[in-house]
Amino acid sequence: DAGVIQSPRHEVTEMGQEVTLRCKPISGHDYLFWYRQTMMRGLELLIYFNNNVPIDDSGMPEDRFSAKMPNASFSTLKIQPSEPRDSAVYFCASSQAGAYNEQFFGPGTRLTVL
Amino acid sequence: GQQVMQIPQYQHVQEGEDFTTYCNSSTTLSNIQWYKQRPGGHPVFLIQLVKSGEVKKQKRLTFQFGEAKKNSSLHITATQTTDVGTYFCAGRPDEDFNKFYFGSGTKLNVKP
Fold first, then answer.
1. Chain A residue at shortest CA distance from B33
2. DSSP3 helix / strand / coil % (chain B, rounded to 5)
3. Which pLDDT band, with edges at 50, 70 and 90, does A101 fall under?
4. Residue in B44, B90, B98 nearest the CB of A55
5. Which residues of chain B make contact with A104, given a CB cutoff of 8 A?
6. Residue B36 forms beta bridges with which residues?
């Protein structure tokens, strides 16, 4: 298996622009997680899905952030409008049986908002 | 606030020295997972502990889950330069199964 796939790997955009991050989980995994990592705040769980349904989105910073999982093999994290403080590395991870099993992380998307 | 804290934040050791990082939760946890993230990389799962007082070993790494299931530790014996990275603990609180928290991480640097 190719592992968790994220795209793009790097994104540089200007403040106010819409940003869409993409994730393809490992086939057969029924949980998908979105994380944000910064030096200041560490690794934060933003939202996670079970069988394409959002279970906990309490980590989503504000209404500018939204996440969808239209099917078992694809998820998006959208930021609209983006702000400089959104600059971070965004990781997607997938697992079987949620937090009771190991999570496999993707390589991450490094987002820079100018 | 932060549910899972780790200390120390940074640790610099000479190759061959031992290293320990501690993970403390404000509430009891149903499980503890440990991950390692190499510089520029992504977190990689190391191990999971679920039982009170559980101890697991992986070569030079020893993982413990506290009796009260509120703390955990990772001990590395005789560090090597390949151990460099940030070590994270993560767990699910008993009080809310929908939550999952990562610790703040301990960054380990090993000097050859």
1. A102
2. 5, 55, 40
3. confident
4. B98
5. 45
6. B44, B87
